[in-house]
Design a protein that fits this description.
Layout (H helix, E strand, L loop, with lengths): L6 H6 L2 H11 L34 E2 L9 H7 L4 H10 L15 E3 L5 E5 L4 H6 L6 H12 L8 E5 L13 H18 L3 E5 L1 H8 L5 H4 L4 E3 L2 E6 L2 H6 L4 H16 L3
Parallel strand pairs: 1-6, 3-4, 3-5, 5-7
Antiparallel strand pairs: 2-4, 6-7
Helix pairs in contact: 3-7
Uracil binds next to loops.
């Protein structure tokens, strides 16, 4: 069961301090006028209290996704069990990211998780430890999970679009995301989560086929293979754009509502 939202965690996320500003003015004190991913809203407050959040609308189907470059490989991966899948990822040489990785970083969490969070790709610490989101962005993700009444490893699985670290933490290229797509697809099919939360543009684009601003993607209910999908900011982006944490909080409240409506 998802636990109630925890006020201490909201304080930890520094959200309690900015909430009053936002409720009054629509913009937290000190917030920049614009940010690259989320243009400032001019009218309604950015956050709606959990009980009054607008009801999720009918799901928006994914745009057609790219056809696998190697259908035979995709079909082979689609039949793997967890053990074989992890071995396959560890040995994968389907794209150039294998050349500089220390190890592949498959994912972490409950294999029957209700919630699947999908990030972009491992960074240096993840490459070192073999687990997604263990660096600074991971600490923030854990706080976001806690604020939503969730916990890494319990009801939650965390994965990435690409399983190997892009050098210098650059954004994975479309062909790298495409080469790794059969792995994420197989993970989704084995877990069959009740909701997918796409963290950041790379994950949203991969899973919805939409390549547009996060501002226009958030607070919408998409579907991926029949599973409800919502989008929010990547934790690494939030570390650089603190006022947008409040929007991420709003996204998580929205996600909880979508989840509550899914059997
Ligand atoms: N950023 C990601 O997208 N994934 C990780 O695992 C770590 C940082």
């Amino acid at each position: 069961m998802t636990r109630p939202v925890n006020l201490d965690t909201l304080r930890e996320l520094e959200l309690l301090d900015v909430l009053p500003h936002l409720w009054r003015t629509g913009t937290p004190a000190g917030a920049p006028a614009t940010s690259p991913e989320a243009p400032q809203r001019t009218s309604t407050p950015a956050v709606v209290a959990p009980g009054t959040q607008r009801a999720p609308k009918a799901p928006i189907a994914a745009q057609p996704l790219p056809v696998p470059a190697d259908p035979a490989r995709a079909a082979r991966i689609a039949a793997l069990d967890w053990r074989a899948l992890n071995e396959d990822m560890a040995a994968c040489r389907a794209c150039r990211l294998c050349e500089r990785r220390k190890q592949a970083v498959p994912g972490v969490g409950a294999l029957d998780a209700s919630w699947l969070f999908v990030g972009e790709g491992p960074g240096a610490e993840e490459d070192e430890q073999g687990e997604p989101f263990v660096g600074q962005a991971g600490k923030l993700l854990d706080a976001m999970l806690a604020a939503a009444g969730l916990q890494r490893g319990r009801e939650v699985y965390i994965a990435n679009v690409v399983k190997c670290r892009p050098p210098g933490n650059r954004t994975p290229s479309p062909d790298e995301a495409e080469a790794c797509a059969p792995y994420l697809d197989r993970q989704i099919n084995l877990i069959r989560p009740k909701i997918i939360v796409a963290l950041g543009k790379t994950a949203v684009t991969r899973l919805t086929g939409r390549d547009t601003s996060m501002a226009s993607l958030r607070l919408q209910r998409f579907e991926y293979q029949g599973i409800p999908l919502v989008a929010t900011y990547h934790p690494a982006y939030l570390l650089r754009n603190l006022p947008d944490k409040l929007k991420a909080w709003e996204d998580l409240v929205f996600a909880r509502r979508v989840r509550a409506e899914t059997r």
